[in-house]
Each structure stands twice: as structure tokens, then as C-alpha cells.
Design brief:
The complex is a heterodimer of chains A (35) and B (356).
Chain A (H helix, E strand, L loop, with lengths): L2 H28 L5
Chain B lengths: L11 H28 L8 H29 L4 H5 L1 H23 L7 H6 L1 H5 L4 H17 L3 H7 L1 H8 L1 H20 L4 H29 L11 E5 L8 E5 L5 E7 L2 E6 L13 E3 L2 E3 L6 E2 L16 E2 L1 E4 L2 E4 L13 E2 L12
Antiparallel strand pairs in B: 1-10, 2-3, 3-4, 4-8, 4-11, 5-6, 6-7, 9-10
Helix pairs in contact in B: 1-2, 2-4, 2-11, 4-7, 7-10, 8-9
């Protein structure tokens, strides 16, 4: 990969990891709750 | 390699892989639907279309996870390069499965033509006051459609691998949307604790593998060779660090990585980035006198960076010379395909596995 793609790859996954953690938290706290 | 384009670049290996893939997909769908009907305590609640929607959806999610872990795993072990070779076909197969899931949802919830399927599906959550999880899946499917449509060497060659790669990084965004689609959709109506556990393990595996490989590459970039005085020649390694028919990958600060290959006791320096999909050429080896990319087997002549005829790919080359045991490189890249005189080595080459 080019240097720019390596940097983008790291940046994207740092941001997405936070989004994933937030969503997983939502999944565990609302799973099965009445909608 | 790019010579004449065909719709599907099949060879014997890929045909066997695709056949095994189709068999696995069909077996999964039959098993899922069959077991669901057998184990369900209230079978009348599940119609065949709903079971098929679920079977296709879960299969698409499993395939997406496999696709996403192949890349970082290949950074950890070269054994995974064989999976990279076939990843495109797995990706297109995934898109077909995900599309069938989406089409069946639109058809089923649109009453098979009674209602407008778009409004029936996409406006459903809004009407119910919930999170529009269908929309997340729909947007993800659109992203996957663009990727599947451009998963061909024609687009790689015409868009350029840098732009193509940037565009295909959209798969990470689409993956996040798929997770949102599952968490705010299916997971809200399922009370079995196994579902959130499986989704959590999958998401953590994908995210941690990508983060780990990205940090390793970031660390390597941090160990680049400085060239503060902008010298024309920069010492990058010694001759005995490069084994026969293998390469040493070096990086000069703020530059792309360079692969220095040793073949027939001569050293040649080329860009480490394959012109096809950006594969790490320096992790490959010399086969039949050509640098061979470990990802898809694209080949280049070490002294000029050109693919052997009839192929037309080219990579940048670098001026190289040897002083004593020291290997020096001019860090300014030549135009792709520029012939450069190799540097001749006096000492016999070391043998063994490749180094970096």
C-alpha cells in the first residue's frame, strides 16, 4: 500500500472502532428491550 | 496481469475455488432453513421467504467478516496470501448473497408488488418511531454495489490503483453500516444472548486485526531512514542484508517504500508498491528473472520495472550503487518503467527466507 493509504487505514479504523464500541454498547443495553 | 480483458478472469485454481464457494453457499442456505424449520417451536410464525431472508442475511454477514479479516491476516503471515488471491471472487459472491437478501426483503415486505417496496421497507421504521435500520443496510448495499461493479482489472487500470484503493476503502464504512443494520434491526427482536455475543466477537475481531496491522505498518513508517540534508545518495543497508532472489524493503523519510532486489549477484531498486493493487513487491521474490508480487503474481523486470511482454504494467525504479558493502540509493524515483543499471555485488549472496 502507498503511504497515504496506510495513514488513511489507521485513521479510518481508529474512528470506526469508536463507532463500533458505541454500537456494541447500544446492542448490549437495548437488546430485547421493548421498542 | 492486464493484457486482454475478460468478464471473469478464471483459471483452474479459481474455478475450483468458485465451485467450492457455491457449494458452501447452497449448503449453508439449506442447513439454515432446514434447521430453523425443524427447531422452531412455532413453525407457523416463519414463512419460507422470512427464513430465506434470514439465511441470506446471516450468510452475507459471515462472508463479509471473512473478506475483512483476510487483508490484515496477510500482513501477519504470508500463508494468507493465497486467500488474498481469491478475495475478489469471494467479494463478488458476497455481494450477490447480500443483494438477494435485499431484493427478497423489498419483494416480501412490498407484498410482492402490492405496495411500493421502497416506501414499505425504508419508511417502516420511521412510521414505527424506531431507528431506520433498513436504511443502514440499503446504503451499505449501494456501497457494495459500487465495489462489486469495479472489482475488475479494467477499472483498476483505468481508475489507477491509488484512486481504486481509496474508493474500495469504503468497505469499512459499509461494514459499520451493516453492524448498525443488525444491531438496530434483528438484535432488537431477538432475545437469545448468543446473537449479541456473536456480533461482538465478530466486530472486535475485525476491528482489532485492522488496528493491529495498521499500527504495525505505522511503526515501520516511524523507523524510516532520515535524509535531512537532501543528499543525492542515501545509504539504506548493506549488501549482505539482501538474500538471493529476495528483497530488502527500505523507507526513506517522507518517501514511499523501496524494494531492493538481488538477482544474479546484481542489485536493483524499485517501488515497493505493485501497479496492480498496491501489493508489497518486496515481500515477493524473483521468479523466472522477474519480481513477482506476492498478492496476485504480477511480474516486473528488476532492472527496468516493466512487466514482460505482452503485459504493460510499469513501476518506478531508483538509481542504485554499492560502495564497499554499503548500498546507496538516489531517493528520487524515476518515471515508471525507466531502465537503470543494476549495481554488481562482489560477495556471494546469502540464502534463506526473505527479510524486511
Amino acid at each position: 500500500m502507498k503511504r497515504a493509504h496506510r495513514k488513511a487505514h489507521l485513521g479510518i479504523w481508529l474512528v470506526l472502532s469508536l463507532a463500533l464500541i458505541a454500537m456494541l454498547f447500544a446492542a448490549w443495553s437495548t437488546q430485547g428491550a421493548p421498542q | 496481469m492486464t493484457n486482454a480483458y475478460t468478464w471473469v478472469q478464471w483459471n483452474t485454481h479459481k474455478r475450483i475455488y468458485d465451485l467450492a464457494l457455491v457449494i458452501a453457499i447452497v449448503l449453508y442456505l439449506i442447513t439454515f432453513v432446514g434447521l430453523s424449520m425443524l427447531l422452531s417451536q412455532t413453525p407457523e410464525e416463519f414463512s419460507p421467504p422470512i427464513l430465506l431472508i434470514r439465511a441470506l442475511g446471516t450468510l452475507a454477514v459471515i462472508m463479509l467478516h471473512l473478506i475483512l479479516i483476510i487483508g490484515p491476516l496477510a500482513r501477519f503471515t504470508p500463508k494468507m496470501n493465497a486467500l488474498l488471491y481469491n478475495r475478489r471472487h469471494l467479494g463478488v459472491a458476497f455481494f450477490i448473497v447480500a443483494s438477494l437478501h435485499g431484493l427478497l426483503v423489498f419483494a416480501f415486505y412490498g407484498g410482492f408488488g402490492i405496495e411500493n417496496p421502497i416506501t414499505a421497507v425504508l419508511a417502516g421504521s420511521y412510521r414505527a418511531g424506531g431507528i431506520p435500520f433498513e436504511l443502514f443496510g440499503f446504503i451499505a448495499l449501494l456501497i457494495f454495489a459500487i465495489m462489486a461493479a469495479t472489482s475488475h482489472d479494467f477499472w483498476l487500470a483505468n481508475l489507477g490503483h491509488a484512486f481504486w484503493k481509496t474508493m474500495h476503502m469504503g468497505v469499512y464504512i459499509a461494514y459499520t453500516l451493516v453492524l448498525a443494520h443488525m444491531i438496530f434491526g434483528m438484535l432488537q427482536s431477538e432475545h437469545n444472548i448468543l446473537y449479541p455475543i456473536i456480533i461482538t466477537i465478530g466486530a472486535l475481531a475485525v476491528a482489532s486485526l485492522h488496528l493491529a496491522s495498521a499500527f504495525i505498518e505505522h511503526k515501520k513508517d516511524g523507523h524510516s531512514i532520515t535524509n535531512a540534508d537532501q543528499s543525492q545518495w542515501v545509504q539504506v543497508c548493506t549488501v549482505d542484508e539482501i538474500k538471493a532472489d529476495r528483497a530488502k524493503i527500505v523507507q526513506i523519510e517522507n518517501q514511499e517504500r523501496i524494494a531492493i532486489f538481488r538477482h544474479d549477484n546484481k542489485l536493483s531498486a524499485v517501488a515497493n508498491v505493485c501497479a496492480h493493487q498496491g501489493g508489497p513487491l518486496g515481500e515477493g521474490k524473483i521468479i523466472d528473472g522477474c519480481i513477482t508480487c506476492p498478492w496476485h503474481g504480477y511480474q516486473y523486470r528488476p532492472a527496468c520495472g516493466q512487466s514482460p511482454p505482452p503485459y504493460t504494467e510499469k513501476i518506478p525504479t531508483y538509481e542504485i550503487k554499492i560502495e564497499g558493502q554499503r548500498v546507496l540509493i538516489n531517493p528520487i524515483a524515476n518515471e515508471p518503467g525507466t531502465p537503470v543499471d543494476p549495481a554488481t555485488v562482489d560477495s556471494p549472496p546469502a540464502t534463506g527466507d526473505h527479510n524486511e
